[in-house]
């Protein structure tokens, strides 16, 4: 599907408002108790090699049926998975072990099953993606929170200085990808390109200005990846931890999107999720999509969203009503991992998959962003 016309955007906004009025009592952000994820100790490691190639399809990942047969991870397993590595812009690296407080294992894994029929997912049938061509829309909230990662992925701005993306955009499970050594993030800005050599300040010169969105790039100061993503830490749940946080060298002025704890699929308005990304088949264009979720496991969402490489790392969001208010608010409740091959009863099948932000993951990401637990007690 081509560029999204202004009239369609207005129509979607009106329909969204009507739906909001009808569902305001049912669909509300409910504050959940968040566990504490605290550092036990941090040690310095040798510098990474930065030799890995960026990959956008993972093979042999444990699927829904496979995960249903796995025992729940123990507290020590989860502490191992949520421990993390940090890589700094000078190439140095540390490893941090974590421990939990106020953690309820049942809450973390309490997914209500709602199985739907499955089908192949990537781009199938009629392409349902929308290109956000209007320069005003693409540089305004919520689309302005979507950023481009220099390794070829997408990310989402979750604070003035932090971008959430997929771990596989940074690390292949064994080593950091080549581009991470000089990692950058591109943010769309409106810029003027003058035509001709008209007298400075003249009205004619101002009228001839061609204002177009273009990327403004900023360096990444620090990168953090959970060890649950690393091969050898776990053979079965790597994709459950396909997320990473990038700290930017310069704070950004535009509005960011907050993270939140995902409710069950039954609590999603219309059962739908939304995300925007920089798909490879539409260079330099922002592509928006929304779709129904077909299934979920404790850590993953399986859905029908049309996508192409480049959209990996997009922030998956929903819109719910704020408690006690008429205002509705968008929050990031997942990270789009991409088109993945998963093992289902010994057979490889393809899915489009997103990582759920669970209470533990919320606590960890929030701690990475704020550096303390005081701002991370309610998700």
What does this structure look like?
With 379 residues, this protein is of the alpha+beta class. The chain has a single domain (36-107, 128-191, 211-370), classed as Beta Barrel (Thrombin, subunit H), CATH 2.40.10.120. Helix content is 15%, strand content 34%. It has seven helices and 17 strands. The chain has helices at 6-23, 64-68, 75-82, 105-108, 135-138, 203-207, 359-370; strands spanning 36-45, 61-62, 84-88, 93-101, 130-131, 146-149, 153-159, 162-165, 184-193, 210-226, 244-248, 272-277, 287-296, 300-303, 315-321, 328-344, 347-356. The protein starts with 5 loop residues before the first helix and ends in a 9-residue tail after the last helix.
Radius of gyration: 21 Å
Mean pLDDT: 78
The outline comes out as: globular
Helix content: 10-25%
Query: Which class in CATH terms?
Result: Mainly Beta
Through-space gap between termini: 35 Å
Strand and helix layout:
Elements: H1 6-23, E1 36-45, E2 61-62, H2 64-68, H3 75-82, E3 84-88, E4 93-101, H4 105-108, E5 130-131, H5 135-138, E6 146-149, E7 153-159, E8 162-165, E9 184-193, H6 203-207, E10 210-226, E11 244-248, E12 272-277, E13 287-296, E14 300-303, E15 315-321, E16 328-344, E17 347-356, H7 359-370
Parallel strand pairs: 2-16
Antiparallel strand pairs: 1-4, 3-4, 3-10, 5-13, 6-7, 6-9, 7-8, 8-11, 9-10, 10-11, 12-13, 13-14, 14-17, 15-16, 16-17
């Amino acid at each position: 599907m081509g560029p999204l016309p202004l009239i369609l955007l207005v129509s979607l906004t009106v329909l969204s408002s009507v739906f909001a009025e009808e569902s305001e009592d049912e669909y509300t952000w409910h504050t959940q108790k968040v566990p504490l994820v605290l550092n036990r100790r941090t040690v310095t490691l040798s510098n990474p090699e930065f030799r890995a190639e960026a990959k956008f399809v993972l093979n042999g990942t444990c699927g829904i049926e496979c995960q249903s047969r796995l025992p729940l991870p123990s507290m020590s397993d989860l502490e191992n998975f949520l421990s993390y590595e940090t890589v700094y812009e000078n190439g140095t690296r540390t490893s941090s072990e974590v421990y939990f407080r106020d953690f309820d294992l049942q809450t973390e894994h309490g997914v209500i099953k709602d199985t739907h029929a499955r089908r192949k997912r990537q781009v199938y049938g009629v392409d349902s993606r929308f290109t956000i061509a209007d320069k005003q829309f693409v540089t305004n909230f919520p689309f302005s929170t979507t950023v481009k990662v220099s390794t070829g992925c997408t990310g989402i701005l979750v604070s003035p200085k932090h971008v959430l993306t997929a771990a596989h955009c940074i690390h292949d499970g064994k080593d950091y990808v080549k581009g991470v050594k000089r990692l950058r993030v591109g943010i769309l800005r409106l810029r003027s390109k003058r035509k001709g050599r008209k007298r400075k300040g003249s009205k004619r010169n101002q009228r001839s200005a061609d204002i177009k969105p273009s990327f403004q790039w900023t360096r990444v100061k620090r990168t953090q990846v959970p060890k649950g993503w690393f091969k050898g830490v776990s053979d079965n749940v790597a994709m459950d931890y396909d997320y990473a946080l990038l700290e930017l060298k310069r704070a950004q002025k535009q509005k960011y999107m907050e993270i939140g704890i995902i409710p069950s699929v039954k609590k999603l308005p219309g059962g739908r999720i939304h995300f925007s990304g920089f798909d490879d088949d539409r260079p330099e264009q922002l592509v928006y999509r929304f779709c129904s979720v077909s299934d979920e496991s404790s850590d993953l969402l399986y859905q029908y969203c049309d996508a192409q490489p480049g959209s990996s790392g997009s922030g998956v969001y929903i819109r719910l009503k704020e408690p006690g208010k008429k205002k509705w608010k968008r929050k990031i409740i997942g990270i789009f991992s991409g088109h993945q091959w998963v093992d289902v009863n010994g057979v490889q099948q393809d899915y489009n998959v997103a990582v759920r932000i669970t209470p533990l993951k919320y606590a960890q990401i929030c701690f990475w962003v704020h550096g303390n637990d005081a701002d991370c007690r309610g998700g």
